[in-house]
Amino acid sequence: MIKYLNEIAKREGFALLELSLALVIIGILLGLSLNLMLHISKTNREKVDIDKIKKIREVIEGYLLKNNRLPYADVNNDGLEDVGKYTGSIPYKTLKISRNEASDVYGEVMKYDVAGTAMGEPSMTDTTSNTICLQMGAYIDGIASSPVMLTEDKGVNWTELPFIVLSPGVNKVYEPENNDADRHYYINYGISSRQIDDVATWDNFFELYDKLHCGKEYFDLLVSSGSIWVSGGKYVGCTEVTHGDYAFITKDVHGAGSKLQCESCAISSCPISFHNCETADFGLSGNRNGKVKWNGSAIVDDD
C-alpha cells in the first residue's frame, strides 16, 4: 500500500489533499480491523472460559457420584481440599485434574464455594453413602438451609445451592458483589451502568438428587421408651414395634404411640413421620446420621 501511494504521489498533478485523504481512509480501516480483532479475541476468551467452567462442574459431579460428598475448598493454594473450609479455590488435586483445567483463561484458579459452615451446620462435604440423599432431601424440604445462594434477577429471587464455581470473566476481576464474605452471588445482569461479567456454573439440589437416583431414603427409628404403632410401606395395617426395636420410617410410613392413634391420625398430623425424623436428625441440632429415636412422646435425635 505504501509503495502504491509513493507511486501515486510521483504522478504529475496528484494533490496533497488527495494523498491525505487516502491516508485517513487507511487509518480508519486499520482502526476498524483492530477493533474487530479485539472483539473476536474477547469473544473467544469468553467462550473458552464458559467451556472450562462447565467441565469443572462435570468433574465435581463425578466426584460426588463416586464419594457421596462434595470436596471442601482449597484455601492455601496447594490444590488440595482443606477440611472445614467451604469458600476458597477449586481443590484441583483432590478432584484429580490439572491446575490449568481448574484455571480461567488468564491462568488463575477459579473460585469455589460449597454448602456448609464452620459452625457445624448441615453440609455437603461430610455426607456418606447412607446420608447423602437424606441430606439433600433436607435441603429440598427446607429442614436445612445452604449459605451458598444465587440470584439472576438483582436479588428479587434467591436459590440455595450445593456449590458454585466462579471465574472473574474477561475483566480479570471478581465483581464486588461476588467477592465479599456473604456467600451470596449475583450473575447475568447489569447493576446501574456496570455490567456483571463474572462467569459461574452450579447445580441445584433437585438436579443432584436426581443424578444420585435418590428417592428411597428411610430413617432408623429406635423405640427407646414404650411401644409405637406404624403403618405404611412394609407395615400392613398398624404394626406394633416394641421397646428396644427399630422401625424403618420412609416417606409413606406414619404412626403414633398407640394403635388407636395410628389408625385415626392423618400422615401430616402423626407424631411419627418422615418429616419429624428429618427435622430431628437434619435440623441444626441433629447429628445427621440417619438414626433417631422415640422417647415415649416425640422423635428426637439419637445423640
Explain what you see:
The protein has helices at residues 2-10, 16-67, 132-141, 205-211, 259-264, 274-282; strands at 87-89, 111-114, 149-151, 159-160, 163-167, 184-186, 190-191, 194-195, 199-203, 219-223, 228-232, 235-241, 246-249, 254-256, 272-273, 291-294, 299-301. It has six helices and 17 strands. The model is unreliable at 36-40 (pLDDT under 50). Helix content is 31%, strand content 20%. By secondary structure, the chain is of the alpha+beta class.
SSE order and pairing:
Elements lengths: L1 H9 L5 H52 L19 E3 L21 E4 L17 H10 L7 E3 L7 E2 L2 E5 L16 E3 L3 E2 L2 E2 L3 E5 L1 H7 L7 E5 L4 E5 L2 E7 L4 E4 L4 E3 L2 H6 L7 E2 H9 L8 E4 L4 E3 L2
Helix pairs in contact: 3-4
Task: State the end-to-end CA separation.
Answer: 84 Å
Instruction: Determine the strand fraction and express it as a percent band.
Output: 15-25%
Integer average pLDDT: 86
Low-confidence regions = 36-40
Q: Give the strand line-up of the largest sheet.
A: 1-2-5-9
- Helix and strand content put the structural class at alpha+beta
Rounded to an integer in angstroms, the radius of gyration calculated over CA atoms is: 30 Å
Helix content: 25-40%
* Record field, number of beta strands: 17
Strand/helix succession: HHEEHEEEEEEEHEEEEEHEHEE
